[in-house]
Specification:
Blueprint lengths: L3 H14 L3 E2 L2 E2 L11 H29 L14 H28 L6 H24 L3 E3 L6 E3 L1 H20 L16 H15 L4 H11 L10 H10 L1 H4 L16 H4 L7 H12 L1 H11 L4 E5 L11 E10 L2 E10 L4 H19 L1
Antiparallel strand pairs: 1-2, 3-4, 5-6, 6-7
Length: 362
């Protein structure tokens, strides 16, 4: 497996590097270095999942043909098995295959930290794929032929789809935060020079935290000497302004980002008109939530229930929050819900998520 993956990535890389001039414009080239550590094995795992999904899609393509073959139709559990097999064929050959390839590229171009989270993501995705694959044989579900992600209205399949999505969510969180920076130059730069600098930065900075980039940027770019005119000047700008370009801004009173309130509105505690109006008043007042979070103070996990809130308008709610820090940056992640909820599960989820965000920012 380890030896097969570099050959596969080298093949993809050779395709990217074989760009030609089309319509007077140069095709953009990409370069992806294959790491010589656990990331290569992890990427190979995603590749094996993708290949397994193609094999499964091929099996279901044969089954859907047999399901319409005379004298063989009666061997299948339902006349609708043709649509069932078609749904599995499409989901395995499109959804799982393409996302597994994304897992290959993200794993190769990811940070070497938190490899365990990467394996957990692969395990969840593989388990979800297996659940979807056995769903037609475990119990019969109604096929829903939607254009995007056709599904079986059946617990095994829907559970598998949710587990697969959870695995890809973990993979996306492990990939780290994305930061866009703007660099001002005094002269025009040729597209080739910008592209060369992009390749150099990707090769030498991919997978590093902002702290590591600020501390080692000059050393990592010291021997980089692109031949294109203007590329050396652009690299020098990155070296000279590294502290400013890769610094995390200090936010004294940041905005409150609130998720959907629909799950709250469906709780019995907000079934009356007055209770629902109170929910809307609280969720629409971001300043109220910001003040409540700011007033909590302290680090770590904090749980405030009902009458414990300083503001009486929050007496019908529970706030479970946990802080994360990165240098001067401080943030709070939390869940707002009714006073009746599964505190042990919610507290563990909030605490783990805040730790994960803090590790991604390091």
């Amino acid at each position: 497996m380890k030896s097969a993956l570099p050959r596969c990535i080298d093949l993809v890389r050779s395709v990217f590097r074989s760009g030609t001039w089309r319509g007077g414009m140069a095709v953009t080239h990409y370069d992806l270095a294959v790491p010589a550590d656990a990331r290569s094995t992890l990427a190979a795992g995603w590749l094996m999942l993708g290949l397994a999904s193609l094999i499964g899609a091929g099996v279901f393509s044969i089954l859907l043909v047999l399901a319409r073959t005379p004298y063989l139709q009666h061997l299948f559990p339902s006349p609708e098995f043709f649509r069932v097999a078609l749904i599995l064929h499409v989901d395995l050959s499109v959804l799982v295959w393409f996302l597994a390839l994304g897992g290959v590229l993200w794993s190769v171009n990811s940070t070497p930290r938190m490899t365990g989270a990467g394996w957990a993501a692969l395990g969840l995705a593989a388990a979800g794929t297996a659940l979807m694959g056995i769903a037609p044989f475990a119990s019969f579900g109604v096929p829903i032929m939607s254009n995007y992600v056709p599904v079986l209205d059946e617990p095994w399949f829907l559970s598998g789809l949710a587990v697969f999505g959870a695995g890809f969510l973990v993979l996306a969180l492990r990939s780290g935060a994305v930061r866009t920076i703007f660099v001002e130059v005094s002269t025009d730069l040729a597209p080739e020079a910008v592209q060369k600098v992009t390749v150099v930065l990707n090769e030498r900075l991919a997978g590093l935290s902002l702290k590591e980039i600020r501390a080692t940027l000059a050393q990592r770019l010291r021997d980089a000497s692109p031949s294109e005119p203007g590329s050396s000047e652009l690299l020098n700008i990155f070296i000279q302004e590294a502290e400013e370009l890769f610094e995390v801004p200090v936010v004294n009173a940041g905005p409150v980002h609130l998720g959907s309130t629909q799950p709250l509105a469906g709780q019995p505690e907000f079934s009356t008109r007055a209770q629902l109006q109170g929910l809307l008043d609280v969720t629409e007042r971001r300043d109220l939530l910001r003040d409540a979070i700011t007033a909590r103070g302290g680090d770590g996990l904090t749980i405030t229930i009902g009458q414990e809130h300083a503001d009486a308008r929050l007496s019908s709610f529970t706030l479970v929050t946990s802080t994360y820090r990165f240098g001067p940056l401080t943030g709070v992640i939390g869940v707002m819900g009714p006073t009746r909820m599964a505190y042990d599960k919610i507290a563990a989820l909030v605490n783990h998520t805040s730790q994960l965000v803090g590790e991604l920012l390091e």
